[in-house]
Design a protein that fits this description.
Shape: globular
Largest sheet: 4 strands, parallel
Strand order of the largest sheet: 1-6-5-2
Radius of gyration: 19 Å
Structural class: alpha/beta
Distance between the termini: 53 Å
Length: 243
Amino acid sequence: MEMTDFLNKILDFFLPPRCKICGKVISDNNGLCPECFQQISFISTPYCAKCGRPFFEAPHNHNLLCGCCAHEKKSLFRMNRAAVCYDDASKNLLLGLKFFDKTDNVPLLAKWLKLGGQDIFNAGVDLIIPTPLHYLRLVKRHYNQSALLAHELSKLTGIEVNYSALIRSRYTKPQVSFSGKARIKNVKNAFYVKHPQDVCGKRILLIDDVMTTGSTLKECALVLKKAGAKSVDSLTVARTFKD
């Protein structure tokens, strides 16, 4: 047994790993207890081949499109994917990471990202880019949760991360403060590509924690495509769905 493994066993004896949601003692350092895991709504087939929206009553056909994607003439994205549905079971993990310094949630959430993004990885990714924070919010929060997720996902996939090509140039109010078209207006012209040579001709994967309306991700994709990106996909840990 290596010294590191021995020390980890001693640490686990005195400070046993606990479920990230309920705090129950578990065997996995970065996991959930069986009861909490069962509450997580993982997104699986069948879903829209383009945007990833689940079909709750549809045959298992990987080429199906939802009504919106079928009628959409041109999309900024090659694909959109999310690992889980944003609901009462998943939100505490995400809110804890975003607002309460629960950065120890990152390894678990990154594993979910890898699982949820298999279609994208199979299609090919050249570069991972996290959704950027404005520097004022970064100073206040001390970290960008999307950047932490991107870093961990890079370790799991071996795909390079670029933290400096995409910049948030305008300070905006949190998107949770708005709804509908106001979200689009809030992030309009809020991003630019600082280093076009880093993204030109590449298949870009945008990473964020939660997708609600997709306004932020669309604005990021717009400037990346204008800078010459070959394709842009988005991958989030969770996604909200409205009927």
